Amino acid sequence: MFTKILLAFDGSDGSYKALKTAIELAKQHNSMLCIITVALIPEFAEVRNGYNEEKEKAEKYYSRFLKYASEIAEKSGIKPVTYFEFGKPTEKIVKKANEINADLIVLGVNTEHPLKRRFLGGTGDPVVDYASCSVLVVK
User: Fold this and answer.
1) Which of 4, 65, 96, 126 would bridge with 11, disulfide CB 3.0–4.6 Å?
2) What is the value of pTM for the model shown?
3) Which long-range contacts (CB under 8 A, 24 or more apart) does 70-78 make?
């Protein structure tokens, strides 16, 4: 049913749960597992001279999550394809899913109050809204 699964992984508690689910689905469906981590550079960095410095910090910080998720998948018998992007998570996740023709996007959400998530922003809702493939949101 699913030939290519894209997991959005950011190191949050929800994304660890999504990682487990994505690995199990990849095994069950004999699917390719792709993992994306999106580094968000603070907007203030773009208006000051520290953009490159902030980008390096973000890459160092976020790349460890991608490495960890990849290692867990490999220990489970899955050889993932990994992607590291800079930008707004929702946009990059949806764009990558389209580029690789993913059948399913798997992402986790934190279990904070739904209204707080809706007003303060979250990645899950917009990905569901804009993705052209199925989306599994793991709680």
Assistant:
1) 65
2) 0.87
3) 70/35, 72/19, 72/23, 73/19, 73/23, 73/26, 73/33, 73/35, 76/23, 76/27, 77/27, 78/23, 78/26, 78/27, 78/33
Per-residue CA distances from 132 to 17, 94, 113, 129, 136 (Å): 23, 8, 27, 9, 13
Tokens of 6: 């894209």
What's the pLDDT tens digit per position in 2-16?
Answer: 999 999 999 988 999
List the CATH number of the domain containing 65: 3.40.50.620
Residue 87: give the domain boundaries.
4-138
In total, how many domains does the chain have? 1
